[in-house]
Amino acid sequence: MSENTGRKNLRMPNDDEVFAVVTEHNGGNHVQLRCADGEDRMGRIPGRMKYRVWINEGDVVIAEPWDWQDEKANVEWRYTDEDADQLRAEGHID
Asked: Which segments constitute the S1-like domain (predicted)?
């Protein structure tokens, strides 16, 4: 296969995770998320990501909803713009 399609194998959500788009940055380590399951949730950026990965409005992320409070979720992963475009092209997200 000589042609390079540029497709990467991207991290996909586990059973308890969903795709989400950051709609608002609430300061500190909290963001507002619109999740692929139709819910709007308050997202928490964990300490392991807080200073290494900058999360902005419009970013596509993987969120893990809390099982004891469904209106909240942890942000587990952030996609680059190129990776998000690939997910859209493959039909994983709107």
From this structure: 6-80
Angle at 81 between CA 36 and CA 30, to 5 degrees: 55
Quote the pLDDT of residue 4. 47
Residue 76 lies in a domain: yes
Q: Residue 71: name the closest of 20, 27, 10 by CA.
A: 20
Q: How far is CA 33 from CA 2, 8, 20, 30, 38, in A?
A: 40, 25, 6, 10, 10
pLDDT digits (tens, 9 = 90+) for 46-58: 988 888 888 999 9
pTM to 2 decimal places:
0.85
